[in-house]
Design goal:
Blueprint lengths: L2 H9 L5 E4 L2 E4 L4 H4 L14 H11 L11 E6 L2 H7 L5 H9 L2 E8 L6 H4 L7 H4 L2 H25 L3 E5 L4 H8 L5 E10 L15 H4 L4
Helix pairs in contact: 3-8
Length: 215
């Protein structure tokens, strides 16, 4: 079918609007998928702390298994924190990360289950995980990754651009930012207001029949 036909089908969907924090957002505003891009170059426009709080307020409302919410996020803004991060970055990611207004460490808490009496009080959900470290880790990683995806979509809804990355040494990030805690890094997302001059041409995507089956 091709990318252009897929985009045309999305644009034909019926518009339904809703209000989010005084901003009208169309439920068929597929631009957060179809025109938003992964950015590598950034303007010097800052990202406010209030915007980051709104970002988390939005992403935290999306679903996780048993509301376990294991995602943890460190928003790196200061030059000192950026320099702390630099040794963990691959050579290809260093310059753009230093230039980004914010770099989010998307992490997960392997002891997320300690919050379940608060987050899922219907039953003793904590006991589901305390008896099996393997299940706890899988649940934390899976749902924390899911929340990282929500972060990217929420950022775009708030007018930010995002540049997710996996080119870094997790162990170094964990030693620098999470020593003595149960938090573990997953991936990084640069956030800010992207400079279109740094964009590559849009790459192809797999068609439905290449990536999907209906059983």
């Amino acid at each position: 079918m091709g990318l252009s036909a897929s985009l045309a089908r999305l644009e034909a969907a019926r518009p339904i609007d809703f209000i989010f924090k005084d901003r009208r957002v169309a439920m068929n505003d597929f631009s957060i998928f179809t025109t938003a891009r992964t950015h590598n170059k950034w303007t010097d426009k800052p990202v406010s702390d209030d915007t980051l709080r709104r970002l988390y307020d939005l992403l935290k409302m999306a679903p996780t298994s048993a509301n376990c919410s294991p995602g943890r996020f460190v928003f790196i803004k200061s030059p000192q924190a950026k320099e702390k991060l630099r040794p963990a970055l691959s050579s290809g990611n260093a310059a753009k990360t230093m230039a980004a207004p914010v770099t989010a460490i998307v992490a997960y808490d392997e002891a997320f289950y300690d919050r379940l009496p608060q987050l899922f009080p219907h039953t003793d959900a904590r006991s589901w995980f305390t008896s099996s470290p393997e299940v706890a880790h899988e649940t934390a990683f899976r749902n924390g990754t899911l929340q990282g995806g929500y972060l990217i979509i929420a950022a775009r809804m708030l007018g930010l651009d995002a540049g997710p990355m996996s080119g870094f040494k997790n162990r170094r990030v964990d030693e620098a930012f999470f020593a003595g805690t149960s938090w573990k890094s997953n991936f990084l997302v640069n956030l800010g207001y992207g400079d279109p001059a740094g964009l590559f041409a849009r790459l192809p995507r797999l068609d439905f029949d290449e990536a999907c089956k209906i059983a």
